[in-house]
Design a protein that fits this description.
single chain; 6-stranded mixed β-sheet; alpha+beta; 5 helices; 153 residues
Length: 153
C-alpha cells in the first residue's frame, strides 16, 4: 500500500482508538504479547470461525499453523497498526486477559472504506452479535470511514 492509499484509509491527524470497552469484553491492539492466548483461542475454534460471516473461503484459520508462525502474523498486524495500514484488535473477556476473539479493520475498495472481520471463540459464541453491534457502533461514531463493509450477524 502506498502512503497515499494509507492516507486515504485514515487521515494522518486521526487519533486511532486504543481500546473499546463494554460490559462483556474489551478490545486492545493485537500484538506479540497475545501470541499464546490468541493461538489457543482460534485453534480451539476453527470450525466455528470458518462458519462466522466474513470468513467465506474456509482457508483460515489453518489448523497446521505452528505457534511461531502465529507470532509472525501478530507481529505483522502490530506493524500494520503502527504504520496505520490496518488495525487489528484482540478481544479480551471483561475483567480478564483471556482472548475471546479478534477484530480486523483494513482498507477495502474505495478510499475511506474499511473492510471489517471479527470472530469469537466457540465457547463464547454468544458474544458474536454483541461484538458485531459494539464494533459497528464504534466504527460509525469514532472512526472516519466513509463506508464500512462488515458482514451482518
Amino acid at each position: 500500500m502506498t502512503d497515499d492509499a494509507r492516507a486515504d484509509f485514515v487521515p494522518d491527524d486521526f487519533a486511532v482508538p486504543r481500546e473499546l470497552v463494554t460490559g462483556e469484553f474489551r478490545l486492545e491492539p493485537l500484538g506479540p504479547q497475545h501470541n499464546a492466548a490468541d493461538f489457543e483461542a482460534w485453534k480451539s475454534s476453527i470450525d466455528h470461525i470458518r462458519a462466522t460471516p466474513g470468513f467465506p473461503d474456509g482457508n483460515w484459520p489453518d489448523p497446521g499453523m505452528p505457534l511461531e508462525e502465529n507470532l509472525s502474523d501478530l507481529r505483522r498486524h502490530a506493524e500494520d497498526f503502527a504504520r496505520r495500514k490496518g488495525f487489528t484488535y484482540t478481544v479480551l473477556a471483561a475483567g480478564s486477559d483471556r482472548v475471546v476473539g479478534c477484530v480486523y479493520i483494513y482498507p477495502s475498495g474505495a478510499p475511506g472504506t474499511a473492510g471489517v472481520q471479527s470472530w469469537v471463540r466457540a465457547d463464547r459464541a454468544e458474544l458474536d452479535v454483541p461484538l458485531y453491534n459494539a464494533v459497528s457502533a464504534w466504527l460509525a461514531n469514532a472512526w472516519p470511514f466513509a463506508a464500512v463493509a462488515y458482514d451482518p450477524r
